[in-house]
Amino acid sequence: QGDVRGVWMETASKVTLTGGGGFLRTTPDGGATWTWANHPLLGASSDYFVFGSKAWLVSSANRAVARTSDSGANWAFATATTTVWDWRNTLPAPYVIVRGNTFATTPQNRDLVWCVIAQYIYKSRDRGETWALRDSIPSCIKTNSFYVSPKDTTKWVAAVGTPDRIIRTSNSGLSWSPGFLRDFSEYGMPLEMNPDKPDTLLFAPEDGKLWRSKDFGVTWDSLSAPLFRSPCDI
Fold it and tell me: 161-168: long-range contacts at Cβ-Cβ below 8 A with a sequence spacing of 24 or more?
């Protein structure tokens, strides 16, 4: 579900929504089409206010107020407000991090984050500030993709090697199924979850076929044969 924290109705059909992640989206026609605004507020936005051609955007995560005087074409902060990036190494790990994306989150609790490095599964309860080793994937030396079911956070699916395969667990890693054995690319994301239908997974290995699972990796069927190899992403 969308994390909407602020709604502004300028007319009966022109509506602006803002919220988690700092998104700011506007529809001029009652939701038929949407535009996304670029603004400098880093953090979840909490309120949006419009007066004529001027607008203000604020966040409960900081003291900054972003403002625009040309309907969102350009944004600025109040005088003396600056943006500072602060990068910290919160998870030092002496393991190989291969290509792909092994982060996973859940809409049930936005503070929870999982990360797999090689075969080791880490979990953070504070959006990555601190980490704890949760488990490890057996017979695995690399992980290219990792997903936690939005419906049930005890169910995980991963694209791992070697040998290359799709494996899953339904009890938070206590046991793992043998998996779907197929070689896949070293250089990207061979596995993807449908965000609108999270039980549906797409898998593009090196056999030239596109595979689909409708039960979060329990069974797989050949969806098509596009004959491409080594996809970087799906």
Answer: 164/205, 166/191, 166/201, 166/203, 166/217, 166/220, 167/137, 167/140, 167/217, 168/216, 168/217, 168/218
In the block, which residue shows the tokens 């997974």?
A: 201
Q: What local confidence, expressed as pLDDT, does residue 22 receive?
A: 86
- Using DSSP's 3-state secondary structure scheme, residue 20 falls into helix
Neighbouring C-beta atoms of residue 176, cutoff 10 Å:
19
Q: Are strands 180-181 and 191-193 parallel, antiparallel or unpaired?
A: unpaired
Instruction: Let me know if 216 is exposed, middle or buried by CB neighbors in 10 A (0-12, 13-18, 19+).
Output: buried
Q: How does residue 100 score in pLDDT terms, banded at 50, 70 and 90?
A: confident
List beta partners, residue 169.
156
101 phi, psi to nearest 5 deg: -140, 115
The structure tokens listed for 2 are 């969308």
Partner residues linked to 4 by β-bridges: 19
Angle at 17 between CA 12 and CA 18, to 5 degrees: 155
Separation CA 191–CA 234 (nearest Å): 7
Cis peptide before 162 (omega within 30 of 0): yes
In this prediction, residues 57-81 reach a mean pLDDT of: 87
Q: What is the mean pLDDT of the chain?
A: 90
Distances (CA, A) of 161 to 37, 76, 87, 166: 41, 48, 30, 9
